[in-house]
Amino acid sequence: MKNPFKFGSVVDGRHFANRREEIKQVKSILNSENHLILISPRRFGKTSLVYNVTRKLRRPVLHLNLQMVTSPEDFARQLVNRIFRLFPFERIKEYIKNFRIVPVLKFHPASGETHISFSTGFADDRDAAIIEDAFYLLERVASGKKIVAVFDEFQEILRLDNTLPAVMRSVMQHHKNVNYVLLGSQESLMREMFERKKSPFYHFGMVMYLDKIPEAEFRKFVAKGLEGVSSEPGNAAAQILGVSRSHPYYTQQLAYRVWELMNSREGAKQMAEGQIGDGTMAKGKIGEGQMAVDQAVDELVMMHDIDYERLWHTFNNTDKKVLVGLSECRREPLSAEFTHKIGIASTSTVFSSLKRLQTDGIVIKQKSDYEIDDPFFSRWINSKRQQIDVRP
Ligand SMILES: Nc1ncnc2c1ncn2[C@@H]1O[C@H](COP(=O)(O)OP(=O)(O)OP(=O)(O)O)[C@@H](O)[C@H]1O
Ligand SMILES: [Mg+2]
Fold first, then answer.
1. Best-predicted range by mean pLDDT among 121-125, 274-278, 346-350?
2. For the CA of 14, the nearest ligand
3. Residues near 211 by beta carbon (within 8 Å), at least 6 away in sequence
4. CATH number corresponding to 19-209
5. How close is the Cα of 331 to the center of ligand 1, in Å?
6. Closest among 318, 309, 327, 311 to 354, alpha carbons compared
7. Which residue has the CA at smallest separation from atom 8 of ligand 1?
8. Average pLDDT, integer, range 239-243
């Protein structure tokens, strides 16, 4: 039997749960003249959602993650490179001739890849010229079928050069042959870019916020995956979702480990010994799910101990207090009760800390509720604090 849970990379097919409404929305935007801006915290499933729609569209799809791009020129280089992967050179070469800064192409026959660099030619604003020409190529090269151009971590363009948004918007807004899909995980920067009137990208496309997967749907998905190894898959799934709070990535990560434990004879034996003491398989015994989940959670917390400790040292004292408070009770951190409990004088101090932690992806805001993004980090904080109280 193969473990049915998958975490870390794009999921599709049997690894992909629900999102029916979101799929409908994304499909409808991509079949229109509009562009999509998709925002969610890290690892909520933006890329997977978009992939699940685009793979069925039978249209050229270009995907570029801006996190790995180092300059406007590098951005243009990578964009042109991806266009080369999608279309035959014969189609592209006509347009390349019009570039103000001539691209130098080196073809590597072994890998089939084309390496692109830009000559040292002069233009008024070299970076802007290179970017504009690369986007011009994207619009021109499409034939018949519109291209879907997905830019991941789009807020990173601000890091590359703060004049880049204006340059890009001025060319992208005229495009008729491309649907742009702009993904971002830094909510405040993305909001700023697409919802602030003065921003060049104001009202560029339809802004969609991706939520967690609804608990009931996700529970069914997890239970189905556990069917082969558990006689109480519904119970075990509920325990898993209780810990992961339906976070797509952490749910899959925990479910993966629980499945491994339940499937391995050793794991089942350990659980059975703990539960019934006779070494027989634990299947069907009360609490089987709970035991496997507890063990899996302990393992995951321990596995990340060094990373969490390193991370902990990067916070200032206020942030630490807020995180401790959230790890103990995540509700209403802006209430007087919460601030009093964690020993901070004012709610505005807590608010600034929450904003900071949110920008860094440590804390996420779900409706009006704040929580620590990683449920295992939350448990690590708790367990470390309890250790202090342990007397030999
Ligand atoms: N619809 C889904 N059903 C089940 N699991 C999912 C789903 N969407 C995401 N996941 C889980 O979350 C993980 C991260 O998904 P994905 O890479 O698509 O998210 P992302 O928002 O693009 O992340 P990042 O912020 O790192 O770019 C997947 O590997 C998978 O474990
Ligand atoms: Mg992604």
1. 346-350
2. 1
3. 40, 44, 366
4. 3.40.50.300
5. 25
6. 318
7. 45
8. 96
Residue 48 CA: which ligand is closest? Answer: 1
* 336-350 pLDDT, tens digit each: 788 888 888 788 999
Q: 14, 4 in Cβ contact below 8 A?
A: yes
d(CA 288, CA 220): 18
Query: Which residues surround ligand 1 with Cβ inside 6 Å?
Result: 6-11, 16-17, 19, 40, 42-48, 185, 213, 248-249, 252
Element (H, E) at 141: helix 126-141
Residue 336 has phi, psi (to 5 degrees) of -60, -35
Alpha-carbon dihedral of residues 161, 150, 205, 249, nearest 10 degrees? -100
Instruction: Determine the distance separating the centroid of ligand 1 and the alpha carbon of 327, expressed in angstroms.
Output: 24
User: Hey, whose CA ends up nearest to atom 31 of ligand 1?
Assistant: 7
Say if pTM beats, i.e. exceeds, 0.85.
Answer: yes
> CB within 8 A of 81, min separation 6: which ones?
113, 114, 115, 116
User: Whose CA is closest to atom 6 on ligand 1?
Assistant: 248
- The CA-CA-CA angle for residues 67, 69, 71, to 5°, reads 130
The bound ligand whose nearest atom lies closest to the alpha carbon of 41 is: 1
The topology (CATH level 3) of 318-389 is Arc Repressor Mutant, subunit A (1.10.10)
Q: Would you kindly state where each structural domain of the chain is located, as residue ranges? A: 19-209, 215-303, 318-389
Name the percent of the chain lying above pLDDT 90: 68
